[in-house]
Specification:
With 663 residues, the protein is of the alpha/beta class. Helix content is 49%, strand content 7%.
Amino acid sequence: MQRSSNSNLRRRRTRVPDSREPAGRAENEVSSEPRTEPGAEASRKRGKVKRAALVLFSRYNKLEGWSPNLVTAAFVILFTRIAAAILSGIADCDETYNYWEPLHYLVYGYGFEVWEYSPKFALRSYAFLAPFFGISSLIARSSVPLDYDARVLSFFAVRIFLAVMSTAADLYLYDSTVWRFGKAPARMLLVFLVGAPGTFRASVELLPSSFSMICFSAFAASWMVGEYKRAIGLLALASLLGWPYTVVIGIPMAVHVVYRKGIAFFLATGIPTGCLLLLVIAAFDTYYYGKPTLSTLNQIMYNVFPVKGAGSEIFGVEDWTYYALNLVLNFNVAFVFASLSLALWLLQSLGLKVWSLPQALSRVIFLSPCWIWLVIFCSVPHKEERFLAPIYPFLLLTAAVSLNDTLRYACGIDIVDTPEPAHPKEQSTSSSHGDDEVKATMTTIARRKGSQHWKSAYIAMSFTAVVVFVALSISRTYAVVDYFNAPFKLFQSLSRHELRGGIGPRTSPPVFADEDTELNVCVGKEWYRFPTSFFLPGRRFRLRFTRSTHSGLLPKYFKEDEHGTRTEPEGMNMFNREDPAQYLENPHLNCHYFIDLQLPDDDPIENPIPVEDRMILFREQFVSVERSRQPFRSFYIPWVSDAYIYRAPYLAIRNLKALPLTS
């Protein structure tokens, strides 16, 4: 089948375009068009228009099928990533207090510190924050002629930077999938990358797991096209600068590279890269912690060999269904499609030939990281949604390939892959007769005779799968943005309208306009939904904690001097033990503002402001998960969901006792 395909290509004197060429270059190298009759001039012009359209909107025109070119794909990916940067809230308090707050301290000289940044424990690396510090500092120190506080702008600048990084990595993954598995899986992958609610949010989160996810998109792309040195470097970046445990995702790649290139190549590439990164990380950590430190090693020791009474389990444990539910919510039918690969393997093991041996090996090699990660992390007692982010690219790649394979197998359409598709730069060589010859190239599909109706069935089922995925993804993404973004929007309103970008509160005594007068914005049970100090417009506006039903350890402010990162805060511990000093004394007198989610059965201790002294400034709606029904609290269904969800008021309250009004 492959021999016949190559001979046809030779007869037409065409060449498969190199991955480094513009999509239309090979089209221009086709031999001159055959002469046409004068009456066929209109038909010839229509053909030119069609070819021009393919050059503009398709990718690799000489490969079978259709897929968007890189410009089109980049536009749709970037559009969704920028939308996520602007619209998506902060869902994990670890993102706020472990990364945004230390970044705010580095840029503005004040911010919250958690116990992981205590020099005694030193579990977090300041090297991870370095590139984001550069971007945020650039905005903070520039004069921006817009009606926004520079802090808010620097926050969104970091997010947009993450969005651009994610777009570039996903685009590379999409392009490499065309060469490795063909255009049909690549098209499906593009839809999944653009639409999946999980990647929508994770792509702009300031978390090592999300950074690793971006690295692994580029890692998978490099690996699939034979750029092994780049793949090894990206693996080192993801696991050392990002999240150390993600190194296990690279195990199949390491085996593959050793088999293809030898262990000497792998070690000669990996060891210098890893050592260089570790030296950079150690230099940053040693400077900021004020003593020789390697946070990567500290983090591994804490989680793998925990002290009695410490370890991640003290923050909660879940069973494997926690991850299963999260994957269904964040990827809906794409997760089901990924699971189809297991069904195909079952059929293969029963003797029904789904793939040839080379095809099966190709899928084992490139799709196995997803399952390796899931098996390992499902066995870890402490589970968090962000722990799954590093495998999102592999999960979606597995879903795209498995869906395509399943539908083609079901419709009787053969799947014919080359055993080891060559890198695109090795795709073409000139024969002795001057004809272009394709050697071990792309995935090709051979359809059985008389199976045209099955081709139509394949197209119809593919389209149906995409429509269902897109509909569920839009529903889920809209629900997350609409239901749970109240804190994100409320603090922006408070910062811009009440605190007037740092000028001070409206209609208040002159003393509160003094730059040396501190104003406290207090939170009780809502401490974990604070969207960072970037949304408070100046140093004198401080977040403070009041007593609530929460009884664990809370963050504390860094010491505000040149070497505040080297100072050991009092009361910090790895056992999540409450420190009484973390609470503001006399909150009914010292809290100028209070942020609260008002629920019917709230404990009176949750809001220390007397009812008669409360002035509601801003109100947003926040969906209470406990009081709402599934699936309406997880997916937005127009004209239906509102009847089954409970929207509680999320309030910004001014304490008239501490901050009286003036005429």
